[in-house]
């Protein structure tokens, strides 16, 4: 393929992916009550935030946001600790234990989610945790996804084992070695894991649907999903809801982009 | 020394316990519930294989099985192939590559409720982009989500757009391939396609195999919520996949035993396909090696 064709492919890809996003953002700024535009409207003639104000009247944005922040505020640090500790330990445990744990992590990626629903429901029911925020935070106890553990393991493995040896000879405990020697060297990966955890928990609608239906524990995705029933004439409100929900997750993408999507693995390693 | 090793085990423990409590345990217990009738109010009644016999003669289940197979058969090759194409296209440091990589990954981080809200607009026949473009050519589209084929294609499209995870994995895998092999292929005069067939594909085959296996699960998972919100499994069950049916039976109709049985069948089906696939992959590997 010639270089020109390659650039053309990239431009087409960018346009196809970014144009709808731009139309959604500008569409959310269209003044409410106007008839739907008759063609593609890149920027409304008279932009306003009325759709966002209307959104705040239709759903209790304050309550939804508070619940979402509680969930992410607990689940993200929890995921980080669980994944980082496990990844760190895996680099230094015996070969057999490491193989078993890594094999398990990869096998778990192949378990369909519906396989967990009924038993989790019964578990939360028995513990009296249905209709609380706990079922939304709980996945963090299992590192949210085995992916985060694998990422942490990869990052710690890049650090020469002699550093662990040295710390151990000086009498440092495993926790101290993780905290003082390991963690400071894998900052970029730690941030990426936090971003992955945030994206999952911020958008988590399914667990709420299954285990947390009660009004007071509704999170942002649950509250905004109710807007699906809206009239088509309120399109700007639907766009505003999509923007409100997607924007923080897209900021998370920027973090992932700097490490996981960067040009070379070495770039990520240098940043660590 | 022993204290340090014990410390390491303590650090691994939270993840092991969490995984046992929330993944491994529930998976095993759900498999047990699959052989019962249970409504969460009265204790579960053991029903044995009768649950599965009933499902097999259940028209809705059979239809869901077909819908699942159709959607997976369309989505998985497009997702894995698309991810591979993007990874090979964008793995270098070139102008626009960083932006394009981010753009390709973006739909995968957007919350599924937002995706549903957006697709409501995308397929709107009057002012959605597809409707506007087609009617500019005098064609126009009908109500896409009310047409079985249109609804299925929409679900497949949503699944294909969120190929970010596979793209990420393939991107990392492609970067780890040794450059000297490519230099050698170049000096031997190999074209792009030959290079792909003889160098890239065989080296990436293990990753592609694992990704395809994972995709059998993920391609259905990423469309679950958008499908629920956009079509609710309709029209006429065209988009009611097995995960959706498991949810409906288990949590809307409170037949948790049925929900568990459908989940178990889905898992067994996935396992079967994965086993066949790995066998084929191994045979292909041996053929390449000789």
Q: Provide the helix percentage of chain A.
A: 55-70%
Number of strands of chain A: 0
- What is the CA-atom radius of gyration of chain A, in angstroms? 23 Å
> What is the percentage of strand-forming residues of chain B?
under 5%
Query: Regions of chain B with pLDDT < 50 over 5+ consecutive residues?
Result: none
Q: What number of structural domains do the residues of chain A give? A: 1
Structural class of chain B: mainly alpha
Give the CATH level 1 class of chain B: Mainly Alpha
Second rung of CATH, namely the architecture of chain B: Orthogonal Bundle
- CATH architecture group name of chain A: Orthogonal Bundle
Percent helix among the residues of chain B? over 70%
- Return residue spans of chain A where pLDDT drops below 50 for at least 5 consecutive residues: 266-271
Provide structural commentary.
The complex is a heterodimer of chains A (272) and B (290). Chain A is mainly alpha-helical and 272 residues long. Chain A has one domain: MetI-like fold (Orthogonal Bundle), CATH 1.10.3720.10. In chain A, 69% of the residues lie in helices and 0% in strands. Chain A is built from 14 helices and no strands. The longest helix of chain A is centred in the N-terminal third of the chain and has 32 residues. Chain A is globular. The two termini of chain A are 35 Å apart. The C terminus of chain A is likely disordered. Chain B is an all-alpha fold and 290 residues long. Chain B has a single domain, classed as Orthogonal Bundle (MetI-like fold). In chain B, 77% of the residues lie in helices and 1% in strands. Chain B has 12 helices and 2 strands; from the N terminus they run αββααααααααααα. In chain B, helix 3 crosses helix 10, helix 8 packs antiparallel against helix 10 and helix 10 packs antiparallel against helix 12. The N and C termini of chain B lie far apart (48 Å). The mean pLDDT of chain B is 89.
